[in-house]
From TrEMBL:
One of its GO terms (biological process) is negative regulation of DNA-templated transcription. It comes from Heyndrickxia coagulans (Weizmannia coagulans). The keyword Membrane does not apply. One of its GO terms (molecular function) is DNA binding. This is Transcriptional regulator, IclR family protein.
Length: 324
């Protein structure tokens, strides 16, 4: 607007000169007038262009920023803190002795400030316990209550409990009840053997399918395609000298398990431990697995046959209750 006003003032000045000055003077002022217009128009045009591009750039930047925020929001997982808390609980689950803050941070590759905040919260709700003297952490008592409630919610545990106790008394060895969960066996019930040797297994612990008796009993009931799919998505570790690591030999072993009706883990999962297991079905579908385990040095042929006969009878009793 200021440039336009200046141009109009120059035009009025030339008009006044045309009435009072000679032709040469008028010509000079015409020249200066159009030069002024050209200069001011160029300045005005540059101003307009800058304003337009500035607005366009800001609008584009805002759109990019908004899009970036949307992308970031979409990729960010919901409940990240919960996932990290679960990682901490999972780590503590397999630690017999209390562990320090530094050990947890190193194992989870997470900063101390983040882990400490989560631990403080978990301690406040009794999911984790902090020892005041050592400043180390263990699982808290609240998990026992939740675990007991979850265990009772499994119908198979309630139904099988009396039969498992009877089997435990008959054999005098450790009895386990497990379920399948995410390519593993999860212990949901354990009855210790009557001898002085107590197996280290605990309710809630998991076992690989490929090298445990309960796991092999489960796999033997699956199709060969499903077994091969399972083997393709896991890493087979040689946990002992007897672990079967060749997929073809394992599939052959599973076929034998299917034919005889029970699985054997002869020190394949843990050295010096012998185990026999069967699946438990309800209406033709696997509800869980049951096993009898003992130190290898106590296994004679007579003991082995007694274990097989007793566990098969126990399975029949449990399945009768489940299907009744």
């Amino acid at each position: 607007m200021r440039a336009i006003k200046v141009i109009l003032n120059d035009m009025m000045h030339i008009i006044r000169l045309s009435n009072t000055s000679d032709n040469f003077t008028i010509l000079i002022h015409h020249f200066l007038f159009w030069k002024s217009i050209t200069s001011r128009f160029t300045t005005f045009l540059n101003y307009v262009i800058k304003r337009v591009f500035k607005v366009s750039y800001l609008a584009t930047s805002k759109r990019r920023e908004h899009k970036k925020m949307e992308t970031t929001t979409e990729k960010k997982p919901y409940g990240t803190v919960l996932i990290r808390a679960k990682d901490i609980l999972d780590y503590l689950e397999y630690r017999v002795d209390p562990v320090s803050l530094q050990e947890i941070c190193t194992a989870l590759n997470t900063s101390k400030s983040t882990v400490l905040k989560i631990l403080n919260t978990l301690c406040s709700i009794d999911f984790v316990k902090r020892e005041e003297e050592t400043k180390k952490y263990t699982l808290g008592t609240a998990l026992i209550r939740y675990g007991e409630t979850a265990r009772k919610s499994f119908n198979i545990v309630n139904v099988a409990e009396a039969v498992l106790e009877e089997l435990n008394d008959t054999i005098g060895e450790t009895v386990h009840l497990g379920i399948y969960e995410q390519d593993h066996v999860v212990y949901v019930k354990k009855l210790n053997g009557k001898g002085q040797i107590i197996l280290s297994s605990q309710v809630g612990h998991t076992l690989p399918l490929y090298c445990s008796a309960m796991g092999k009993a489960y796999l033997a009931e699956q199709s060969e395609k499903d077994v091969r799919d399972y083997l393709s998505r896991i890493t087979i570790e040689k946990r002992t000298e007897n672990t079967i690591t060749d997929p073809e030999k394992l599939i052959q072993d599973l076929q034998e398990v299917k034919q005889r009706g029970y699985a054997i883990d002869n020190q394949e999962n843990e050295k010096d431990i012998y185990c026999i297991a069967v699946v438990i079905k309800r209406n033709g579908k696997i509800e869980g697995m049951m096993s009898v385990s003992a130190p290898r040095f106590r296994i004679t042929e007579e003991k082995k046959q007694k274990m097989i006969t007793s566990i098969l009878e126990a399975r029949q009793k449990i399945e009768s209750k489940l299907n009744g």
